[in-house]
Automatic annotation (TrEMBL):
Similarity-based family: Belongs to the queuine tRNA-ribosyltransferase family.
Gene Ontology molecular-function annotations: tRNA-guanosine(34) queuine transglycosylase activity
Protein name as catalogued: Queuine tRNA-ribosyltransferase
GO annotations of cellular component type: cytosol
Residues at which substrate binds: D105, S106, G107, G108, Y109, D159, Q207, G234
Quaternary assembly: Homodimer. Within each dimer, one monomer is responsible for RNA recognition and catalysis, while the other monomer binds to the replacement base PreQ1.
Species of the source: Arcticibacter svalbardensis MN12-7
Alphabetical GO biological process terms: tRNA queuosine(34) biosynthetic process
Upper taxonomic lineage: Bacteria, Pseudomonadati, Bacteroidota, Sphingobacteriia, Sphingobacteriales
Pathway it works in: tRNA modification; tRNA-queuosine biosynthesis
Enzyme class, UniProt record, top EC level: transferase
InterPro entries to which the protein is assigned, alphabetical: ArchSynthase1/Queuine_TRR, TGT, TGT-like_sf, tRNA_ribo_trans-like
Length: 389
């Protein structure tokens, strides 16, 4: 795979500074600089599918949860509210009132999940809207144009996310097409301009299912494009955790050390720590918000199902280490009551807690990397975090 041409006059403003590395693992702490602010890594990015992180105000995201970057979903935002509205608003930042960095996915994962209503060809992907059944075409060029309009600081290349399990020959054809699509993405990105007066950065995506040779081939191809950051996709789609870790470790050994690495769609608190140890800098996942709305909480000491009868008369704080979450102190019995009663406040409190916990966890990992304590701390934490309380 030939690297994309550098003949275009482009100015890339996103910067990544590596600040510390762990002596006993591949974990590292760094800082990503964008026009909308800096991002301390490792970082977890709350998912705002339709322009909002469900059940959370922007003020809470910024002041309480201390999120540094959030996600917007290209497929959903394209369909609703639509590009015309977003462009008139001045992009997603102006539309939703979030003034920090935003990352937009390319729509590739949603296309993957719409397997019954889409067709994949070399040109791109034809699919039907889940809203009204209308027919649409996403090509690499269209995906770039849409993300220019949405206005993410970091935008993703259009790729095919293969399912698990996946036939080897299909996975091979898929990565070859994903690499050809990446060339088209880069050409379109490099010959167009941001719309709203700030820079945007394009991340390619490594694919290859759980096949080592395909992951190596894809990582080498993606690295050859020499973009400012790189992503790893197609994991956390049903494969065993051991396969995820093996593929992540393999790919991180190939992707450039001096650029941020983003593992897409991952995952549990344990997944985060294990993959940080393998060299990942950025994560996103709907798990903390989706599970919160179903009454599942993540804590320092393990996982809690707030629907369980055992919490009915437990008036202790949700998080035993309440000083870490002083702005979110609610007792277990009250939260259980709200959730079993299907009160909206229950979903809000649970979501705030889970996101706060995820952001606390990656920040704590960062502090431990810098202080040289990460390896031993991680070994202890993964045991605690996996417990069912």
């Amino acid at each position: 795979m030939e690297p994309q041409s550098n003949s275009y006059l482009c100015v890339f403003k996103m910067k990544f500074k590596l600040e510390a590395s762990d002596k006993f693992s591949k974990a590292r702490a760094g800082e990503i600089s964008t026009d909308h602010g800096t991002i301390k890594t490792p970082i977890f990015m709350p998912v705002g599918t339709a322009g909002s992180v469900k059940a959370v105000h922007q003020r809470e995201l910024k002041d309480d949860i201390k999120a540094q970057i959030i996600l917007g979903n290209t497929y959903h935002l394209y369909l609703r509210p639509g590009l015309n509205t977003l462009e008139k608003a001045g992009g997603l930042h102006k539309f939703n009132g979030w003034d920090g960095p935003i990352l937009t996915d390319s729509g590739g994962y949603q296309v993957y999940s719409l397997s019954d209503v889409r067709k994949i060809k070399e040109e791109g992907v034809t699919f039907r809207s889940h809203i009204d059944g209308s027919k649409h075409l996403f090509t690499p060029e269209v995906a770039m144009d849409i993300q220019r309009v949405i206005g993410g600081d970091i935008i993703m290349a259009f790729d095919e996310c293969t399912p698990y399990p996946c036939d080897y020959n299909y996975a091979k054809k898929s990565i070859d097409m994903t690499h050809r699509w990446l060339k088209r993405c880069c050409d379109r990105f490099d010959t167009t301009e941001p719309k709203y007066g700030y820079s945007q950065t394009l991340f390619p995506i490594v694919q290859g299912s759980v096949y080592k040779d395909l992951r190596i081939k894809s990582a080498e191809a993606i690295a050859s494009f020499e973009r400012e950051g790189n992503a790893i996709g197609g994991l956390s789609v049903g494969e065993p955790a051991e396969e995820m870790y093996a593929m992540t470790e393999l790919v991180c050994g190939i992707l450039p050390v001096e650029k941020p690495r983003y593992l897409m769609g991952v995952g549990t608190p344990v997944n985060l720590l294990e993959n940080i140890a393998l060299g990942i800098d950025m994560f996103d996942c709907v798990m903390p918000t989706r599970n919160a709305r179903n009454g599942m909480l993540f804590t320092k000491n393990g996982i809690m199902n707030m629907r369980n009868e055992k919490w009915k008369n437990d008036f202790s704080p949700i998080e035993a280490d309440s000083e870490l979450f002083s702005d979110l102190v609610y007792n277990k019995a009250y939260l259980r009551h709200l959730i079993t009663s299907k009160e909206i406040l229950g979903a809000q409190i649970a979501t705030l807690h889970n996101l706060h916990f995820y952001l606390w966890l990656v920040n704590e990992a960062r502090e431990k990397i810098i202080s040289g304590e990460f390896y031993d701390w991680k070994k202890k934490m993964v045991i605690q975090l996996a417990q069912r309380l």
